Amino acid sequence: MLVPLSRAVPLLVVSALGVVRADTLATIGPTYAIGEEHLLAMITRRLREKEASGELQRLQQQIVARGRQAVLQPPPLALPVASTPRTFYHDPTYVLAQRIVDAKGAVLFPAGTRSNPLDIVPLRRRLLFFDGRDARQVALAERLQARYAGALKPVLTGGAYLELMRRWQRPVYYDQQGALTRRLHITRVPALVSQEGRRLRIDELVPEPVAPATDKEAP
After folding, report:
1. Core vs surface per residue 206-218: b (16+ CB within 10 A) or e
2. Most C-beta atoms within 10 A of its C-beta, which of 64, 146, 151, 180?
3. What is the Cα–Cα distance from 128 to 203, expressed in whole angstroms?
4. Are 188 and 137 in contact (CB under 8 A)?
5. Residue 3: which pLDDT band, with cuts at 50, 70 and 90?
6. Residue 17 phi, psi dihedral angles, 5° rounding
7. Which of 174, 126, 178 is closest to 153 using CA atoms?
8. Rg for the chain, CA atoms, rounded
9. Which of helix, strand or coil describes residue 23?
């Protein structure tokens, strides 16, 4: 009996697929167990080896020491020392890029609203940004603290702030990652920030040389 061509083609395709599947199954080879060590078992074994040799304790001590150093003396900012006095101003006014609405969709502040933080919270104490690793800048900070009778916030851009806190018996701040200096466009230190009207005045100060300490002659 002859099979119509329209039925013969699907039959040939199915037959071919069946042959291919049969051939594939026939060529499957033997399987083998995984010979590699389990990952968790390997990690546990290596940790025990490092603990037995004392290496694990050394690594822990190094991590603690690095963390302690980062807290006591954060990474300094790459700000050069001012060589000439300079004064410039910073306007902290900002403009809303988009409107602010409440939970019901009512507009609280439309886009384009201008606001100056100094209208709400004035800068009552000056800010002095300086590098605590430079003896000249530290001496300048001490003179300015005496001049302004405590109405000054010392802000480090480098150095050990805890050491100065113990020495001065007062809070010393640190400009972490340069957040404040970038916002105020401070590029040199020492820099004294004060409020003048609705703007901030930034004075770059040139530190004076510090006379070297001399030993007193014995009588």
Report:
1. ebeeeeeeeeeee
2. 180
3. 10
4. no
5. very low
6. -60, -40
7. 126
8. 36
9. helix
